[in-house]
Design goal:
The N terminus and C terminus are likely disordered. Helices cover 12% and strands 48% of the residues. The strands form 2 sheets. The chain has a 20-stranded antiparallel sheet that branches. It has a 16-stranded mixed sheet that branches. The chain has a domain of 474 residues. It is mostly beta strands. The protein is globular and about 105 Å long.
Length: 725
Amino acid sequence: MKKYIITTLLILLSSPCLAQELFETPEDLEKMQEIFYEAPFSPIPEVKYVDGSTQKEVQGMPLFKKTRVKITNFFRERDYNKAQKLIEKEKQEQEKLEAQEKEEMDKVFNVNFKPDKKSNSEDVKKSEDESSDSLELEGGVREHVTADDILLDAENIDFDENTLDFTATGSPVLVFPPQGVTIKAEKMVYNKASNILKAFGSVEVIKDGNSMFGDYMQVNMNEENAFIDNLSTKESVVKIDAKKADMEDDKITLHNGKMVSEEDYVMNFHTRMIGGNMFNNLILDDDEKSSISNEIGDTTVNIKAKEIYVNAKKSNDVITLKKAKIDYGGFDLLNIPSFTVHTNKKREFFDANYPELGSRAQLGMFAGPGFVFDTPLQNGSTVKLLPIINNKSGIGFGGMLKYRSATNFTDMGYGSSADIFILKGRQYLDDKLYMQYGVNSYMDEWFMGPRMSKYNAELIYHDDAVIHSTIGKDLNLNFRHRFGFGYMQNPDFNRHDENLPTDNLGTTRTRYMAQVSQTLFNYRDLENKKLLNLSLVMQGSAALYGTGDTQFIGRVGPALHTQYKHWMQDLMFFQGAYQDGTPMQAYDIYRYGHSTLHIRESLRLCKYLTVAWSGTLNLSDDSPNGDVFQENSFIVAIGPDDLKFNIGYDWVRRQTYFGCIIAMNTKGSSLEYEKMVIKNPDKLSRDNTEIIEPKVFEQENEPTVPKKMIYAEVIDMEDPDKEQI
């Protein structure tokens, strides 16, 4: 319960900052904004920073992976059993051979003892007498503990015959083995007639290694409920206090309580930016960084709620605040009549009933309230409905639907202003296997840049590997490759001003893409904020279409990443060759030509202002539209380092962008409530879904049979210590 309350507090304290567009999970918020442009991937090996093009790590266990592991386990277990039978057969044959050898040896040496009949009969009689008096036990001895069993340990236990009270003093300890609960106090009194237990002074309740403290506790054994006065508990991040706690069979109620974050705990959130999150890669001294707390002082978030309801369901948890007031830095920020948060058991994602404001390609700007509902489709999944007002070519109305689970995100919507339907989603099937699908949306095409299709459904396998120190110390070779098969269709119109057919041609595409990056030189002077990383990059792509057409692209060139003081840049030049026979030219024609230069520049002008630019130049004058700039985006970051607002514009796609970076320290923030009701506390953070985990079993160390390992299937495994936001 305690850890879950901590998670609830952190979610509630951070939720006002998360009212953004298109977030996937609490761990990966990079898709909160629709991505219209991202410069082709520029590798930065050996520089321990990440850009904005990283993939989402799968937190849940997709169905395909679960099935794959089950099948693998079946065949491994079958092989294991065969090996065990072989070992047993060899043992039996070995024992039979040894018996035959012994018998032959006895015959050779004539070692055959024949005791006389008298001694033999006496031995038989003695054996019969012993067998009649002895009792042979088979199997083990099991201790059975019933639900009513309790264990009490104390220095002194007194019994009052008049009141029927058992009084335990001298460090009494009461244990409920079936529930795994231990109670400690200065004194305990148990009344046999009423079947009520009372604990006085420095009461401590221990369960699963976690402790709650109070001044007084009463447990009614008949009705199976309890309450505790002045509850207090301490976690590494949050301290929890309550004047009174009532505990029943399936419900816990806390009265007049408060949760306070007493230690530093920084929560980082950011939206994805044009060309990647370059600003986060800058090396800065501590005194050069700025914080909003340095400017306005108190930045704690304090929430006062009349009632809080936590409903722990089978596959997800729902948290509702009633009549909540949010105070930020001493100023009244919001008054919320009701606010509900939905999250799955592993905290891989969450959603809430907050309004959203954003923009989407084709749909334009939109705004509207949000309503979240649980679904039975996948464990802990939610659907969010948003009636919206959109503005594309005038004011219009429509709606959006967002589906979230641990392995899937799907967004769809319609706006009458643009009179268009949009869809974008991704379903993870395995650790490196996923399906992406969309309608009138920009889809991820890796180093070919995001491309818009009218319809798109593609199965993708994406993997990478590193070979360390290939040509020298810390000069590594990085390899990434991707295989995809799917169906695509040309968009209704072309945003690149190209004289290309925009017919409704659609066909299948099978494509393999690969990239090899070898670090040639790496210089780092962190004290003086100087970096230089030089690598050689090779990229290739081969595609076969359902029409029989093909597309082949190969290019190679140097990639340079540098930082000098507050100026950072990425330069990547490619010289390539290509044969482009794509039948869907408006969708995936190769636009970068034989000679291509990718540029990303970032300059930190002061603590509160950074400017950046991303562009892709066609130097060989062979682009389909004849323009030099095939990508051209500009962005400005305003604000301190822990609260930056990013505003940008993409000239190619004629789109504006808005995003933010938030690093929130929860120290000093609090949540006060008059009443908190937790329903089904035994299910809090308990994932009852099927989990398959690898376990290793080894064969007996037989000289003729090598060791074998198999995977074992574990069902209903619970991990209460894993609490993530």
